Write a sequence for this structure.
């Protein structure tokens, strides 16, 4: 098991679980970060945080700390 | 008829709203709450009003905009929801649609950006999508005004037939059973508060507290609800919130698999990725941002704006000279002549001449926002802003603050946490608004050599930001040390801002500014003229230092002795500046009489002028901004705190600055 923050730039994974709670978690779910969704890490902001991810055909930015709540399984591109 | 226009951010909602209403729009508050929304009547249908809802992604109970939207849709008698969606990003856009459909209000889905879809060689089977969702779907290209008329027709038809969304069962299995059981369980309660039971059920299963409180379930019913939810959680192997989000996206994926035909990649998306390889580059993003801002400021204040303003000033002076000539040849009473020329014309004219500069500044700011670049700035700056306890999203209101604090304070509404909102609102006035620009320019022109002027202007702006950061750090350590907030933000594709939207926004700002010049500034100028023309026995004074105004100014001016300026006119200008910052200059123009640039050095030494500028930069925001603070924070005492706090802070900083520069 790994989390989204551990994924290298340009690599993809499939979400297995979204942890955390409250407003943040709900927001992640609302934005489409639901189990079985494929995400790709597009880039890391200049100062190392936040990260930019690609999912469901669009770009989303989340913080590294929050990415730790997203469990993924690595997949081939 | 009333239509509500709702949809995600960045899907062309404002563009569609402008196409629908043309210039028949006005800003109003949503009933009972402080979130403002635009309203307007639809072109060619004067009996149809359309309300622009906030741009949202969901109907969760976590952000004020989402709560406002759902309360508005439930409580107001809406005849039809026009749900605008971005066809190029359809999965996430339909997520909100499914929730809106549960509200059981007639609804039409406007599928925007179909022109882009075509360009990319992709299509959506409109008929099939409409059948799958149970609501009419209308293809649209809002920017090109394609499909707008059809949309209006279909929306009116849907409203007339009261055609509610036909398909509501997006669920299956355990979630399906849970929703139906809960819907039955709470039906009576939901009817009582006029909420569709299906919507109430979904929200209860999601664990939505506002809905729970509104329904006032009995303990027994709460137990049953929890039992149903627990059963569903065990069966689906996930928790209540994830189960429902999952259910919606599952349904959407199935629908999209049947209806969306993708043969080509999105060109706009590929272009955005390319642009971002430069604009959010690891090394270059920050220098580029600084560069872009520098160019904007240089163009606004140095090139276009200044050039336009100079021309405009000549024009205004010509008009004033004409009025002056007319009045003189008519042989009007000298006191009335003085009121019109020295009072109204001097005051309003001095402010009006900055109209072009302000319009240019707003033009650039709106280009930054509408193109999608602001979101990138938030992405790049997030970590920096976190050091003062904010998120990258606070950066956007702050940048808008360079235009005007009022929209900036209102823009802070999109921030997800109360703490962020408060702090952003408090820090926004440190970004010098465009109304302070006339003050800076006039003083810098009067006191500094041409080569020093741009440096001084930039110094003032940066000084404000530095003070903002310091205050931010202090606030973070004291009043606002709290939880970090979610920073989950879409980075939309770059898009060329619609010509019409930009023109309308600029027209709006110009109109606001002109209105202000002829209302607040006009009144202030007349009052100032009156107070400086008469003494306490209402005799016309020969020298304004004998006037009522001088009396008031002299009472206040000792306060500013440690700041280096004691002239009563300076104190008076600062007082009137509270009504609007432009009034500082209009007041000084009225008071000094004649050429303000030549006269200012008779009131201030250069060092005192710097201290005066620092004080004006930092002291209380104008009445309009304070009213916005009060509205947004729902708190009179917070607004008062801003007024007093910032004025005291400004006094201290200006005193320090003055005494330090006196050492040299």
């Amino acid at each position: 098991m790994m989390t989204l923050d551990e994924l290298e730039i340009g690599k993809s994974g499939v979400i297995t679980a979204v942890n955390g709670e409250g407003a943040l978690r709900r927001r992640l779910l609302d934005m489409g970060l639901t189990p079985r969704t494929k995400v790709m890490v597009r880039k890391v902001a200049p100062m190392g945080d936040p990260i930019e991810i690609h999912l469901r055909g669009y770009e989303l930015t989340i913080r590294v700390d929050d990415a730790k709540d997203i469990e993924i399984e690595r997949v081939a591109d | 008829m009333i239509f509500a226009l709702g949809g995600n951010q960045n899907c062309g909602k404002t563009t569609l709203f402008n196409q629908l209403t043309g210039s028949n729009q006005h800003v109003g508050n949503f009933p009972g709450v402080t979130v403002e929304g635009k309203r307007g009547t639809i072109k060619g249908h004067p009996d149809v009003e359309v309300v622009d809802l906030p741009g949202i992604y969901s109907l969760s109970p976590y952000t004020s905009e989402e709560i406002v939207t759902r309360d508005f849709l439930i409580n107001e008698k809406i005849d039809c929801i026009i749900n605008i969606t971005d066809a190029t990003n359809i999965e996430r856009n339909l997520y909100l649609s499914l929730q809106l459909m549960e509200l059981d209000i007639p609804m039409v889905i406007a599928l925007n950006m179909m022109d882009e879809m075509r360009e990319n060689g992709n299509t959506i089977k409109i008929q099939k999508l409409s059948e799958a969702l149970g609501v009419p779907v209308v293809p649209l290209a809002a920017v090109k005004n394609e499909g707008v008329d059809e949309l209006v027709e279909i929306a009116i038809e849907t409203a007339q037939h009261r055609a509610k969304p036909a398909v509501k069962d997006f669920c299956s299995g355990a979630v399906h059973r849970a929703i139906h059981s809960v819907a039955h369980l709470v039906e009576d309660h939901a009817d009582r508060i006029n909420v569709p039971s299906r919507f109430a059920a979904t929200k209860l299963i999601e664990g939505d507290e506002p809905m729970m409180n509104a329904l006032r379930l009995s303990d027994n019913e709460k137990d049953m609800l929890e039992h149903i939810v627990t059963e569903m959680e065990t069966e689906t192997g996930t928790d209540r919130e994830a189960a429902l989000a999952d259910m919606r996206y599952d349904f959407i994926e199935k629908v999209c698999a049947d209806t969306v035909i993708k043969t080509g990649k999105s060109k706009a998306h590929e272009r955005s990725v390319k642009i971002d390889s430069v604009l959010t580059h690891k090394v270059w993003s920050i220098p580029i941002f600084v560069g872009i801002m520098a160019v904007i400021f240089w163009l606004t204040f140095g090139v276009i704006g200044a050039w336009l303003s100079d021309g405009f000033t000549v024009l205004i002076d010509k008009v004033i000279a004409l009025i002056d000539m007319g009045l003189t040849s008519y042989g009007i009473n000298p006191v009335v002549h003085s009121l019109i020329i020295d009072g109204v014309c001097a005051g309003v004219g001095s402010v009006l001449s900055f109209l072009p500069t302000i319009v240019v500044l707003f033009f650039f700011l709106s280009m930054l926002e509408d193109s999608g670049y602001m979101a990138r700035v938030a992405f790049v700056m997030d970590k920096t802003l976190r050091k003062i306890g904010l998120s990258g999203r606070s950066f956007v209101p702050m940048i808008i603050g360079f235009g005007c604090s009022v929209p900036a304070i209102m823009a802070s509404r999109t921030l997800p946490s109360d703490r962020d909102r408060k702090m952003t609102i408090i820090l926004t006035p440190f970004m010098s608004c465009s109304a302070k620009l006339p003050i800076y320019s006039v003083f810098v022109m009067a006191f500094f050599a041409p080569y020093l002027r741009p440096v001084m202007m930039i110094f003032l702006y940066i000084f404000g930001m530095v003070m903002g950061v310091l205050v931010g750090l202090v606030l973070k350590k004291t009043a606002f040390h709290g939880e970090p907030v979610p920073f989950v933000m879409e980075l939309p594709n770059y898009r060329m801002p619609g010509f019409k939207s930009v023109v309308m926004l600029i027209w709006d700002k110009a109109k606001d500014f002109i209105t202000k010049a002829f209302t607040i500034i006009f009144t202030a100028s007349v009052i100032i003229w009156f107070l400086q023309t008469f003494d306490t026995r209402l005799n016309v004074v020969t020298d304004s230092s004998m006037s009522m105004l001088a009396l008031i100014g002299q009472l206040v001016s000792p306060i500013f002795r440690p700041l280096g300026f004691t002239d009563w006119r300076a104190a008076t200008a600062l007082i009137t500046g509270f009504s609007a910052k432009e009034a500082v200059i209009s007041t000084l123009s009225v008071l000094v009489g004649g050429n303000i640039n030549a006269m200012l050095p008779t009131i201030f030494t250069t060092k005192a002028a710097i201290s005066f500028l620092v004080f004006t930069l930092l002291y209380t925001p104008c009445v309009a901004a304070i009213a916005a603070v009060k509205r947004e924070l729902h708190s009179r005492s917070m607004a008062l705190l801003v007024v007093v706090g910032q004025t005291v802070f400004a006094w201290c900083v200006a005193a320090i600055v003055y005494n330090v520069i006196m050492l040299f």
Q: What stands out?
A: The mean pLDDT of chain A is 93. Chain A has two helices and six strands.
